[in-house]
Amino acid sequence: MTRDRAIVLGAGVSGLTTAVAMALAGCRVAIYAAEGPAQTTSSLAAAIWHPFYQAPDLVYLARARHTYATMCRLASDAASGVIMKPLTEYFRRDAGEPWWAECAANLERVQDPGMSPRFACAYRMDVPVADTGTYLRYLMNMFLELGGTYVHRCVDDPAPLLDEADVVVNCCGYGSRRFGDDALSLSRAIVLRAARDDTVSGCHIDDSDPALPTYIVERVDDIVLGGTADPDLTSTVIAEPQIRDILHRCNGLCEGACALRVIDARIGFRPIRDKPRVARDDKHARLFHNYGHGGGGFTLSWGCAHDVLRLTGIESAGTGLE
Ligand SMILES: Cc1cc2nc3c(=O)[nH]c(=O)nc-3n(C[C@H](O)[C@H](O)[C@H](O)COP(=O)(O)OP(=O)(O)OC[C@H]3O[C@@H](n4cnc5c(N)ncnc54)[C@H](O)[C@@H]3O)c2cc1C
Question: Which chemical reaction does it catalyze (predicted)?
Fold first, then answer.
């Protein structure tokens, strides 16, 4: 039997997940990427499973559910950098359970008399959280162990690569704009990384204001505090008041956040599109796309990789990962 030859462009969470899923399905896969995992937008993410800034959407729900199940499985392997954490999400309007409630385990309404009066209700649930450095390395190692190859290469146009492979999958995130997608834009995000501390535990989110998402994500090695959502801003300068504002907002979710020792402040750029493009190319039948996941690249990763497999017609090996 000849195995399909596939080229996956990009080594962020979308590219690595897609490449692993295709390798598990028996393809001979090469990743071509301009930057390695540690230099990607993915490496800067808080990497909590959560449908950030997302209106109810059935396709999103199916992909998020698939990812949730897969990441729960990965959490049982300590080497993956994925752990299950309690998340408390705060809502300013009481509209009952969140629309994606069915995905998350142990969801319950929180009865917290100490909760700030600006919140109408809160829900607690268990969600997967990834330590990005460890998780992206883990995916890359899994990919290489499955016989995949990694090539450091910037691609100007994916179409000519169809001469080298049966299938090409573009997972270039915002880099896909170079291939002609003007519907893709950026949303700048400022996040802080703080040292772990007993006073702050678990994860806390209030994303009711799309311009000022506030979150605390406790991971294996650090605590990520966020954030901002600044459409089209590209400056990479972080001012002291912006750091103080994030700490102040986080302290409103979990007292003690203000006193955390901040290790660094970082800027990342979410690749925004009205919907992620997970589709066959309009002109080239063997070229596929998987990019534009906005603030949900981790949340959607395994579900989107699964959809890529389905679109290419490559049969899943049924390992439970892809
Ligand atoms: C601060 C921050 C916090 C976030 N927190 C979360 C969160 O908690 N949960 C969540 O689900 N999501 C979160 N996100 C969103 C998530 O990080 C992104 O949706 C995701 O990282 C996008 O991944 P990607 O693999 O598609 O793109 P990227 O990570 O940008 O990777 C793109 C890859 O393509 C390569 N590439 C680009 N152009 C070319 C080219 N021409 N040729 C070859 N290679 C190319 C790059 O080198 C790179 O390897 C966050 C984002 C930010 C910025």
Answer: a D-alpha-amino acid + O2 + H2O = a 2-oxocarboxylate + H2O2 + NH4(+)
